[in-house]
Design a protein that fits this description.
The chain is elongated, with a radius of gyration of 27 Å. With 436 residues, it is an alpha+beta fold. The strands form five sheets. Strands 1-11-12-13-16-10-9-4 form an eight-stranded mixed β-sheet. The chain folds into two domains: 99 residues, Helix Hairpins; 317 residues, BirA Bifunctional Protein, domain 2.
Length: 436
C-alpha cells in the first residue's frame, strides 16, 4: 500500500508515476485527491487547535484560579478540546476511507523499470543456452505426457473438474524430484532457510501481501465454523509468498539480521479464469499447482542488488537443469499490482514454439511491508523503518516439468532426465511408456 502522507503531499508526482502503468491507473487517484486534500486541511486545523490549547493551558498556570479571567480561559479551553475531538473523529474517518481507496491502488513503478504500453514492450535482458535442435517435429507436453502415461488429464477432470491433473508413475516422481532438488539448491547453496508453512491463510495475511482486496475473485475462499469462535473465513494460498511473507507481520526485525531469506514449497491454488486455448491446455495454467518460492526481507538501500541476487537464484535452477531460457524485464504497463520492478524468466517450449513464464521475480519496495507492518531497527533505540520485500518463484514446478518433457524429448517419444535429477529419480535416466 502506498504511504497516505506521501500521496497527500505529492499528488501530482504520484499521478505521473501511476500514469506509466496506463491512464486507468492514474484515474484511480480521482477519488483519492479530495480525500487527500481533506486530510491535509484537517491536520492543519488540528495543529492550530492543539497549539491554541497549549497556549491557553500555559496561561491558566499564571492566572488566579478563583478569578473570572481564569474561568473564561478554562471555558475557552473546553471549547477548543471539544473542537479538537470533533476534528480528530473526522480525520480518523477520512484516513480510514483514504486507506480503503489506497488498498486498490497499485505500487509506483521504479524509475529504472522500462516504459511501455503492453507486454510487447518488455525488453530481453539476457538469454541462456541455445534452443534444442530437434531433428523431428516436437510434440507438446500434453501429447508426450499422455503417451508416456504420466499425465492423466481425464481422471483429473473426473475428480475435480477442468484444470486439474493427475500425475502418475514417473510423472509424480519427477514432480517430487524437482521439489526436493529446488529446495536443496536454495537452502544449501543460496543460503535460504527452508519453511513449510500452512496453505490455509487468514484474510489479514492475504491483505498483507496485496492479494486482498484487489484479487479476491482469483482466490479460493473457505468458510468453517469453529466452536467458541463462530464462523471463520480462510483462503487457500495462491502462492507461498503469502504465508512466508507474513511470518514477520506486525514485527520489528533487527537490522543486523537482514537480509533474511526463506524458501518454501507449497501447493498453490488460483481460481483465475485465464484465457482459452493453448495457454490453458495441459499443465500451463492450473487451478492447483506446485511451486517453490523465494522470499527476502532487505533494507531499502540494498534492495536493488538483492533483487538481482534473488533473480540469479531462480535462474540457477534452470541452468543446472540445462533448460534454455531468457530473462525479460517487465515494462511499466505490465508490472504486477504490488511490484515496483520485475524480472520474468521465460523457458523455451519446443512443442509450443514459444517462451513461457516460469518465474516472476519482483521487488515490492515497502508496499507489502506497510500493509503487513513489517519493520526493522538499524540499531538499538533507532526509529523503526519499513523493510523492503522481494519474492520470486524458484521455480514453478509444473512448468519446469513441462519444459523438461519438451526440451528433453527424443525422436522415439521417450524423455531423458536431466543429469542433476537422476539421484532424485532413484537412478531413472529415461522415461518411457513402459514406466507405468
Amino acid at each position: 500500500m502506498l504511504d497516505a502522507r506521501y500521496v497527500t503531499d505529492h499528488l501530482d508526482e504520484v499521478r505521473a508515476s501511476l500514469a506509466r502503468r496506463g491512464p486507468g491507473a492514474a484515474h484511480l487517484l480521482d477519488d483519492v485527491a479530495p480525500l487527500a486534500v481533506s486530510r491535509r486541511e484537517l491536520i492543519v486545523a488540528l495543529d492550530a487547535l492543539r497549539a491554541q490549547k497549549n497556549e491557553v493551558s500555559a496561561s491558566l498556570a499564571k492566572l488566579d484560579k478563583k478569578g473570572e479571567e481564569f474561568l473564561r480561559a478554562r471555558d475557552a479551553m473546553k471549547v477548543v478540546g471539544e473542537q479538537t475531538k470533533s476534528l480528530e473523529v473526522r480525520l480518523a474517518a477520512v484516513e480510514a476511507e483514504l486507506e480503503d481507496k489506497l488498498l486498490n491502488i497499485p505500487n509506483l513503478p521504479h524509475e529504472t523499470a522500462p516504459d511501455g504500453t503492453s507486454e510487447a514492450d518488455n525488453p530481453v535482458v539476457r538469454v541462456w543456452g541455445e534452443k534444442p535442435e530437434l531433428a523431428f517435429a516436437p510434440r507438446d507436453h500434453v501429447a508426450l505426457g499422455e503417451a508416456l502415461g504420466i499425465l492423466d488429464f481425464e481422471r483429473g477432470a473426473k475428480i475435480s473438474g477442468t484444470r486439474f491433473t493427475v500425475l502418475r508413475a514417473h510423472g509424480a516422481r519427477l514432480e517430487r524430484a524437482l521439489m526436493s532438488f529446488m529446495l536443496d539448491v536454495h537452502s544449501n547453496e543460496h543460503g535460504y532457510e527452508e519453511i513449510w508453512p500452512p496453505v490455509l491463510i487468514k484474510d489479514s495475511a492475504a491483505r498483507g501481501t496485496s492479494q486482498l482486496p484487489k484479487f479476491a475473485k482469483d482466490m479460493f475462499k473457505l468458510e468453517r465454523f469453529e466452536e467458541g469462535e463462530g464462523a471463520r473465513t480462510l483462503y487457500l494460498a495462491p502462492t507461498a509468498e503469502v504465508p512466508v511473507t507474513n511470518l514477520h507481520a506486525d514485527e520489528i526485525l533487527e537490522g543486523a539480521a537482514l537480509p533474511i531469506g526463506y524458501t518454501a514449497y507449497t501447493a498453490c491454488f488460483r481460481s483465475e479464469a485465464g484465457s482459452h486455448g493453448r495457454d490453458t491446455r495441459g499443465l500451463i495454467r492450473q487451478h492447483q499447482f506446485d511451486k517453490v518460492e523465494l522470499v527476502r526481507f532487505v533494507t531499502p538501500e540494498t534492495a536493488m542488488a538483492e533483487h538481482a541476487k534473488l533473480t540469479s537464484h531462480a535462474e540457477a535452477i534452470l541452468e543446472k537443469l540445462g533448460l534454455h531460457y531468457r530473462t525479460i524485464e517487465l515494462c511499466s504497463a505490465d508490472l504486477g499490482f504490488a511490484s515496483r520492478k520485475t524480472f520474468d524468466l521465460e523457458v523455451w517450449l519446443p512443442g509450443q514454439d514459444a517462451y513461457r513464464e516460469i518465474s516472476s521475480c519482483s521487488w515490492f519496495g515497502d508496499f507489502q511491508a506497510r500493509r503487513a507492518k513489517i519493520r526493522f531497527r538499524r540499531e538499538a533505540g533507532a526509529k523503526p523503518e519499513l523493510v523492503h520485500t522481494l519474492n520470486g518463484s524458484g521455480l514453478a514446478i509444473g512448468r519446469t516439468l513441462v519444459a523438461i518433457l519438451e526440451q528433453y524429448q527424443q525422436a522415439d517419444g521417450t524423455v531423458r532426465i536431466p543429469e542433476v535429477l537422476v539421484p532424485y529419480m532413484g537412478g531413472v535416466r529415461v522415461i518411457t511408456p513402459k514406466a507405468r
